[in-house]
Amino acid sequence: MCGIIGVIDRGREVMDGSAIRRSLSLMNERGSGEGAGYVAYGVYPEFRDYFALHVFFDNLHETRPKVDALLHQWGRVVHDEEIPTRDTARLRKVHTPWRYFFKPDVRLMPRSTTPAEEIVTELVMRINTAIDGALVFSSGRNVGVFKAAGWPEEVADFYRIEEYEGHCWLAHNRYPTNTPGWWGGAHPFNLLDWSVVHNGEITSYGTNRRYIESFGYRCTMFTDTEVVAYLVDLLVRRHGLPAELAVTALAPPFWDEIDAMDDRRRRLHHALRLTYASAMMNGPFAIAVADQDSLVAFTDRSKLRPLVGAEAGDRLYVSSEEAAIRAMEPRLDRVFMPRAGEPIVGRCR
Amino acid sequence: MTPSIGSLPPKYRVTIDHDRCMLCGRCVVNCSYGVFRLDGDRVRTNSRVCTACHRCVAYCPRDAISIQERPLDYRTHPVWTRGVRESIYSQARTGKIVLAGMGNALDYPMIFDRLVLDACQVTNPSIDPLREPMELRTYLGKKPQRLELGTRGDGGVDLLTELAPNLCLETPIMIGHMSYGAISLNAQLAMARAVSGQGTFMGTGEGGLAEPLRPYQGHLIVQVASGRFGVDIDYLERGAAIEIKIGQGAKPGIGGHLPGEKVNALVSRTRMIPEGSDAISPAPHHDIYSIEDLAQLVRSLKEATGWKKPVFVKIAAVHNVAAIAAGIARSAADAVVVDGFRGGTGAAPRVFRDHVGIPVEAAVAAVDAKLRSQGIRNEVSVIASGGIRESTDVAKIIALGADAVYIGTAALVALGCRVCGSCYRGLCPWGIATQRQDLVDRLDPVAGGEQVGNLIHGWTLELAELMGAAGINSIESLRGNRDRLRSYMVDQALMDVLDVKSVGA
To answer: Do residue B471 and residue A203 have CB atoms under 8 angstroms apart?
Structure first.
């Protein structure tokens, strides 16, 4: 099952976390109280030029020095602290969530056209595979993921989510079948600016993982969703595809539909399917992906998971359920259901 | 000199139930090996020449014939098996290399049968291919790593990347290269009709392209092998794709031999060799002593055909197959064919057939992993061949990383072949591996084409069902999806090569 919801304000007006907390809780039927999470864009304006690395530490004394050392080797940490939390009756601190505001030394990656991002990606992969007891779960600029094992309202209260303000939010209510109770397994998944929430199961995961790992990404979270974040990063940041075409590559039209297109579109879609055959995602899913400026949501090619969109002024909403959107904003200008594989795209002005 | 070995136990004993026999003589007519003769009111048999091809059994209207395998065996011994002893007797007599037909006959474990496929339960729905789209379309050839796009004034996007020509298959099942000469014209025609009807392709083998096959040339892959038999510009231009054959799974490292008896007038014309002469393909291509020589030949063939056709390179699966495939991927070649050690053949030295090369499952797993680790998997398609027996083998090898398969023996079996392994004798009573006109005439290309077409169609339906059960509606999501395989009783070293977990894991 799982429930997803996302909102973007195209005029970059900020919203605090209380509304999305309410609407995610409304979808508790879709979860099991074993995982929930939020991501918000624009939450660290005072550190907007620094990568905000959110890390789960199992043992502060044992593992944090290793992460500190690695970060100092690759750049400069301008500020770090424990992420403020509030212990609640039912949600205890299994890991210590920590945040670093980090600027990589771009001279260390001269061959890259996006050296800062390359360094951060490499550090995330390295910490998550090589440092036992440390897990980077958020690594973008001016963005923060807050997630844990619990019901949406518990996780929100634990992280004091109402104290954060962002112009774009994603949230996820989890019904796990894999890795229940593991904080790292909760959504959203994030890499750099990309955050992903996902409802469903990716039956092509093995193919996608082998594909993405041949580009140097390493899947470390034991779940199929992280691969989506890496695929989007590869297709959009490294290969320069516009978001709509990246979605088309991940959930392409059927060949029959491509055969019926006009010549120009057929050539393009044909080339996309051939080139990105191993990136294509199969199985039932509804996915929402966000970065600083946009929110994109789409389903599998057969729409085996629900997805609904809505608009109210500058705000664009996507969710598993219309009711959840109405819990955030009762006065909607428009509610719509995208067709299978057709993306909903919202961009900041 | 008196031979001191004497006669060996017969391989088969053919007996006739004279109560059932009605003396119709069909067995006498049908057996090209001369087992039967009509002697007054009885059909008599000479079991020693029987190959167990079952032509007589198939055509006896009264089920009066029975064939017993090994009616009299040697004293059993686990080390000195029948096969070992008979090779020695044969070589003691002749002093020659022992020839054998069909594929590897040693009792190696079958990896395919130690792998199981996955299906969906609860957490995601299985897909019913009768009700939902199910895509098996497969493109073979080079794909770009990424696309160059241009933005137009109206916000639209233009594709700037020029794609290399690809073969478009409606099912990932093709028929491999069996040459005219090794098999009959009618056998080739039947298979050509089948692949045309099913939207797929077959190989011509190294025997040139006989004129009657030209109507099907849009579905034929022409082969250039070390003997260059039948190769000219007309031949190259007729093929939908060109395949350079470096090696063959049934006999890696050695060439081919078509006995002169099989070289009749049309075979002679098609191969461009004198009638009645042996056609011997050398072991290596004498213009390819290194990888860069291969790259040159690939480019030459492309240049000659205007860069309009994909060029495949077929290699036998040998120990270093992954590195070799990576070298091929760096040439202009569009696909690498990996031919496993179970691949069939009309004739191969027994020691090669049984002892040289590796299984296709391990070879494809290694090739796919190597190409991915070097970031060049899109540079070539991978075609698996050699021992593909049923649709599950197709599903499993694609999950291990292949793009498509070639079948060989399975297609012949669909034409009636009973896998008797006597192809090199040229007397195939089923009209498949023979050039004797009366035998060839037994194989009707229309009926045969239907049978082979049925086989490919049936496998394709099964493949669609298997994919649907796994919640996959497009073949590209099965390709290399080793997570959907589990191994059952496979040792850890092989599991590491296959990169497949154990059942239960």
So the answer is: yes
Q: Verify whether the Cβ–Cβ distance A206 to B481 is below 8 Å.
A: yes
**β-strand partners of B487:** B115, B502
Q: Cβ contact (<8 Å) for B147 and A271?
A: yes
Strand, helix or coil for residue B144: coil
Residues B222, B234: Cα–Cα separation, whole Å: 11
Q: For residue A157, what is the domain's CATH number?
A: 3.60.20.10
- Measured distance CA(A51)–CA(A74) in Å, rounded: 13
Interface of B with A in 369-398 (CB under 8 A): 372-373, 375, 377-378
- The CA angle B68-B70-B75, to the nearest 5 degrees, is 150
Residue B256 clears pLDDT 90, i.e. is over it: no
Nearest Cα of chain B lies from the Cα of A203 at a distance, in angstroms, of 6
CB-based contact (8 Å) between B119 and chain A? no
Q: Which residues pair with A104 in a beta bridge?
A: A75
Report the C-alpha gap between B499 and B423 in whole angstroms: 37
What average pLDDT does the segment B103-132 reach? Answer: 92
8 A C-beta contact, residue B341 and residue B356: yes
ipTM of the complex: 0.90
Write the pLDDT tens digit of every residue in B267-320. 899 999 999 998 888 989 999 999 999 999 999 999 999 999 999 999 999 999
Tens digit of pLDDT per residue, chain A (349 long)?
699 999 999 999 999 999 999 999 999 999 988 899 999 999 999 999 999 999 999 999 999 999 999 999 999 999 999 999 998 888 888 899 999 999 999 999 888 888 999 999 999 999 999 999 999 999 999 999 999 999 999 999 999 999 999 999 999 999 887 777 789 889 999 999 999 999 988 999 999 999 999 998 888 766 788 899 889 889 988 899 988 899 999 999 999 999 999 999 999 999 999 999 999 999 999 999 999 999 999 999 889 999 999 999 999 999 999 999 999 999 999 999 999 888 999 999 8
Q: How many residues does chain B have?
A: 505
| CATH architecture of the region B149-502 | Alpha-Beta Barrel (3.20)
A178 interfacial to chain B (CB closer than 8 Å)? no
Set A2, A168, A219, A348: catalytic member: A2
Give domain status of residue A235, yes or no. yes
Answer yes or no: is A104 within a domain: no
CATH topology of domain B12-72: Alpha-Beta Plaits (3.30.70)
Candidates B123, B157, B477; nearest CB to A204: B477
Q: Where are the alpha helices (DSSP H) in A214-349?
A: 226-232, 243-250, 255-259, 263-275, 322-328
Cross-chain Cβ contact B127/A239 below 8 Å: no
Query: Looking at the complex, does the CB of residue A206 fall below 8 Å from at least one CB of chain B?
Result: yes
CB contact under 8 A, A207 and B481: yes
Euclidean distance between CA atoms B292 and B270, whole angstroms: 30
Per the structure, the count of domains in chain A is: 1
Alpha carbons B115 and B401: distance in angstroms, whole number:
14
Tokens of B192: 């050509």
Average pLDDT, rounded, for chain B: 94
Residue B121 has pLDDT above 80, yes or no: yes
A2 in catalytic set: yes
Decide if B477 touches A, using CB distance below 8 A: yes
- In a domain? residue A320: yes
Give the integer Cα–Cα distance in Å for B378 and B129. Answer: 28
B163: which chain A residues are within 8 Å (Cβ-Cβ)? Answer: 270-271, 274
